[in-house]
Amino acid sequence: MTNLKNDRFLRALLGETVDTTPVWMMRQAGRYLPEYRATRAQAGDFLSLCKNTDFACEVTLQPLRRYALDAAILFSDILTIPDALGLGLYFETGEGPKFKKTIRTAQDVAALPKLNAKSDLDYVMNAVTAIRSALGGAVPLIGFSGSPWTLATYMIEGGSSKDFRFTKQMMYAEPEVLHALLSHLADSVIDYLNAQIEAGAQAIQIFDSWGGALAHREYQAFSLNYMQKIIAGLKREHEGRKIPIIMFTKGGGQWLEPMIATGADALGLDWATSLADARQTVQGRVALQGNLDPATLYGSASTIETAVKAMLDDAYRHGEKTGYVANLGHGITQWVDPERAKIFVDTVHDYSAKYLG
Amino acid sequence: MTNLKNDRFLRALLGETVDTTPVWMMRQAGRYLPEYRATRAQAGDFLSLCKNTDFACEVTLQPLRRYALDAAILFSDILTIPDALGLGLYFETGEGPKFKKTIRTAQDVAALPKLNAKSDLDYVMNAVTAIRSALGGAVPLIGFSGSPWTLATYMIEGGSSKDFRFTKQMMYAEPEVLHALLSHLADSVIDYLNAQIEAGAQAIQIFDSWGGALAHREYQAFSLNYMQKIIAGLKREHEGRKIPIIMFTKGGGQWLEPMIATGADALGLDWATSLADARQTVQGRVALQGNLDPATLYGSASTIETAVKAMLDDAYRHGEKTGYVANLGHGITQWVDPERAKIFVDTVHDYSAKYLG
Fold first, then answer.
1. Sign of the C-alpha dihedral, residues B1, B7, B13, B17?
2. For the segment A48-99, what is each residue's pLDDT rounded down to a tens digit?
3. Which structural domain, as residue segments, surrounds residue A148?
4. Rounded to an integer, what distance in angstroms lies between the CA atom of residue B10 and that of residue B345?
5. b vs e for A75-87, b when ≥16 Cβ sit within 10 Å of the residue's Cβ?
6. What residues have CB less than 8 Å from B37, skipping those under 6 apart?
7. Which pTM was predicted?
8. CA angle, corner B70, sides to B67 and B75, nearest 5?
9. Could you tell me if residue A69 is inside a domain?
10. Are A72 and A64 within 8 A, CB to CB?
């Protein structure tokens, strides 16, 4: 089970040499794929897709059948934890995720149950086990969680938000309530991710999707410190291999230095950051992952090739030989033609031989 | 008319010494003020408020009656230009701005009329003249425009957007169409801002509200280059005084170096950027403006004071004596208690004496 046929994704994250640049795509199992839409129609709705082991396993594997991807990522939602804590996650068409219950007061926070991920989120662990078995060692499986800050915004707002009104009111007016919530969530995420690792996840990504909404000092206090706590609490080795941890704060390109201090193995970058500059900043202390604007895939084959080559030139400009995983800077959108995603993946492998071959 | 009683805002933007830190607030004339809501109710709707000289003048002056602000800013909307180009701006309650017509093809772009700001947007120029007269030289008046990129996103999407789907499809699939649109808008903005300067605007801010949605290379090609063209085309002196230009790209904290190259006098920063780091980067080559998270004003008096002091400590950490204008990092929200905004303004003046007095 621990013998991987293709381990270049794990190797690159850990700074070990690779023959070509590993690549995967955030949201690679998603609506842009007709086979995904078909399985989702079978499942009925998005949450049923997540909660059914066979369906979750099937959609996780779909993009691997089409593309030469170097990693699979567990198909699930970032809001499984708040759902398991009793908030009642549901999806309204075109409106994104919503919660029946919100968390707005110290009493709300105090009343949150302690998560037992193995039982409360057994459907996630079942999916991890099933996917690992189905993969048969072809590529590693990434487990993931939302960051405490990102989960908290949804729990406080009751869904997505543009301005994070209630979350920021709590942050500036009652910071101790928000800290209590974040602390509870950090413990929950540790339990959740360790359960994923034990079930078979071979790398972990923490999605801090809304970290970029914070001011620079508040990012450290309300998001980064809790991710650091999580990293310190995770099982870092399993089945005789290190479990690399990727931290991805969307909009966090100005904060690489404090991010490195958390002990993460790799940092995800969005497209606002110059990969060449980021490589100079981190100086090999962590690996980097990213960062093509997913909208690039709306362009022609030659537009995509040119953009991917420029990204790889940035990644290896200073003679680096590893420490880089190609990816989009955020999730692939539903409007991308699947053939264009193939150009992205193949160009990464073909062109990176120039630097690594 | 050119004698200003308080010119510290202009002086700080131009790097001249000041006795205390000048301060204003983005969206200082806005819904958080009960007197604004009253005038708006009188006007009927938001566009009537913008288009009526007396009402626009009245709401511009309202925050100056409450707070010791060092600048007034023309009350208007950033979407006046597309409206004047025939797109039919309207507002749906709670939904933000919308256009009846969108721009999606080369034909749509070619059919756009040439703007004659003095006649097509005479209501803006009338407001500028009336406000200048009403101010009586108390403080300078800021004129403004949206950036070509930001205006283009609204024109292409037909309103606000989360993912800029159609704009980015045009950018990556038909970049020449987008460049034609941006070029037309840059010419329009030059005409519009020069008309504001001639009517009496004493400083200019270009709002690149959505520049941060761009990848780093595309920011240069599709937003910054057009702002640079505008800056080169603006009347930089009027009534015997220099007209300082402030460029504000929300989410642009990683791109200060190329921004400086545009010839802007000052750069606006949002709260994601450390002001201390930004001061080190720009080394006095441009002034900086910003950058308190507007949500800080949800906090207590002491929370606000502490945050303002930390911001000023950052601004003057390296012995600087000018080149800084205090502001929020984005517009003040409708949920702020007006008394809290007063604490922000007064703390800036009081505490900065420590460095400048």
1. positive
2. 999 999 999 999 999 999 999 999 999 999 999 999 999 999 998 777 899 9
3. 8-356
4. 17
5. bbbbbbbbbbbeb
6. B31
7. 0.97
8. 80
9. yes
10. yes
User: Cβ B295–A271 below 8 Å, yes or no?
Assistant: no
CATH number for A291: 3.20.20.210
Concatenate the DSSP letters of all residues of A39-108 into one string.
HHHHH-SHHHHHH-HHHHHHHHHHHHHHS--S-EE----TTHHHIIIII-EEEETTTEEEESS---SHHH
Q: How many CB atoms lie within 10 A of CB A249?
A: 29
Query: How much is the ipTM here?
Result: 0.96
Q: What is the DSSP string of A275-338?
A: HHHHHHHHTTSSEEEEEE-GGGGGS-HHHHHHHHHHHHHHHHTT---SSEEEEESSPPPTTS-H
Beta strand pairing status for B203-208 and B241-242? Answer: unpaired
DSSP code for A234: S
Contacts of B277 in chain A (CB under 8 A): 254
Distance from CA of B344 to the nearest CA of A (A): 14
Please state, as a whole number, how many other Cβ atoms lie within 10 Å of the Cβ of residue B3.
Answer: 8
Please check whether residue A2 lies inside any domain of the structure. Answer: no
Are B214 and A272 inside 8 Å of each other by CB? yes
Tokens standing for residue A195: 């359960």
Which residues pair with residue B297 across a beta bridge?
Answer: none
| A298/B173 touch (CB, cutoff 8 Å), yes or no | yes
Alpha carbon B40 to chain centroid distance? Answer: 21
> Considering only CB atoms, which chain A residues are within 8 Å of B219?
272
Question: What is the number of domains present in chain B?
Answer: 1
User: Could you list the active site residues of B?
Assistant: 27, 31, 40, 77, 154
Quick one: B47 exposed, middle or buried, by C-beta within 10 A (0-12, 13-18, 19+)? Answer: middle
Provide the terminal-to-terminal Cα distance of chain B, rounded to the nearest Å: 28
Q: A227-279 pLDDT, tens per residue?
A: 999 999 999 999 999 999 999 999 999 999 999 999 999 999 999 999 999 99
In this complex, do A272 and B216 lie within 8 Å of one another by their Cβ atoms? Answer: yes
Residue of B nearest to A220 (CA): B272
A174 found inside a domain: yes
B-interface mutation test, from A172, A250, A312, most B Cβ less than 10 A away: A172
Q: For residue A269, how far is the Cα from the chain centroid? A: 11
pLDDT in tens, chain B (357 residues): 458 999 999 999 999 999 999 999 999 999 999 999 999 999 998 999 999 999 999 999 999 999 999 999 999 999 999 999 999 999 987 778 999 999 999 999 999 999 999 999 999 999 999 999 999 999 999 999 999 999 999 999 999 999 999 999 999 999 999 999 999 999 999 999 999 999 999 999 999 999 999 999 999 999 999 999 999 999 999 999 999 999 999 999 999 999 999 999 999 999 999 999 999 999 999 999 999 999 999 999 999 999 999 999 999 999 999 999 999 999 999 999 999 999 999 999 999 999 998
Instruction: Give the C-alpha separation, A13 to A246, whole Å.
Output: 8
Partner residue opposite A173 with nearest CB, options B172, B254, B299: B299
Q: Is residue B94 part of a domain?
A: yes
Which chain B residues touch A if contact means CB-CB below 8 Å? 163-165, 168-169, 171-173, 212, 214-219, 251, 253-254, 271-274, 277, 292-293, 295-300, 303, 310, 329, 333, 335
